[in-house]
């Protein structure tokens, strides 16, 4: 069976594609998000009119905190290797930490990291003090700029992050309830297949190994996709079309599994 990436099978016979983007991985979630719109309200008491404000509370109106924009920009630059030296340093440091955790306990790794950091800062502090004494200068504390830097989170930031965490928690709980109580048979079967596949993944890898693979993928897949986007999109489209066709045939043969048209 051959198909082109752009072919569509109709809303009732699609698993991926438009239905996938609208319904999510395990079915229609728009109604559940609508229910959650009224669960969270800003501190001022006004209801949130758009769900996007829950997930993106910082709008591009000039009021978005610089820290949030800088953090997002830095993360993207790291994953796409805009600065090779910086990305390489972060990537190697994270991998070294994860590999250390595979050999030593979390307590030991944390203690050794703290000792290494303290050794570096104390040595630098003593070096600068001796240098100032010899040169008879008064430059002050070498870490003065960092000591005076504001690192506390504001009440508004804490409130926004807490609201987002609450929204994600409520959404996850409602989705799990829907899957385990078989509100939609096809979605519950998909979830069961996913859990069955994870049993094999868990038998082959432990948590730290999976975490290492995730980190490696985060630092490699964006670059690969950026360079070969057209080819990857073509093959993904073909796979989606084939999967949509198979799932559509299964839904047509199992009574009560075909979704109603919206």
TrEMBL record:
<keyword id="KW-0812">Transmembrane</keyword>
<keyword id="KW-1133">Transmembrane helix</keyword>
<feature type="domain" description="Reticulon">
    <location>
        <begin position="75"/>
        <end position="262"/>
    </location>
</feature>
<dbReference type="GO" id="GO:0014069">
    <property type="term" value="C:postsynaptic density"/>
</dbReference>
<dbReference type="Pfam" id="PF02453">
    <property type="entry name" value="Reticulon"/>
</dbReference>
<dbReference type="GO" id="GO:0030182">
    <property type="term" value="P:neuron differentiation"/>
</dbReference>
<protein>
    <recommendedName>
        <fullName>Reticulon</fullName>
    </recommendedName>
</protein>
<feature type="transmembrane region" description="Helical">
    <location>
        <begin position="89"/>
        <end position="118"/>
    </location>
</feature>
<keyword id="KW-0472">Membrane</keyword>
<dbReference type="GO" id="GO:0071787">
    <property type="term" value="P:endoplasmic reticulum tubular network formation"/>
</dbReference>
<dbReference type="GO" id="GO:0007420">
    <property type="term" value="P:brain development"/>
</dbReference>
<feature type="transmembrane region" description="Helical">
    <location>
        <begin position="204"/>
        <end position="225"/>
    </location>
</feature>
<dbReference type="InterPro" id="IPR046964">
    <property type="entry name" value="RTN1-4"/>
</dbReference>
<keyword id="KW-0256">Endoplasmic reticulum</keyword>
<dbReference type="GO" id="GO:0005789">
    <property type="term" value="C:endoplasmic reticulum membrane"/>
</dbReference>
<dbReference type="InterPro" id="IPR003388">
    <property type="entry name" value="Reticulon"/>
</dbReference>
<dbReference type="GO" id="GO:0043005">
    <property type="term" value="C:neuron projection"/>
</dbReference>
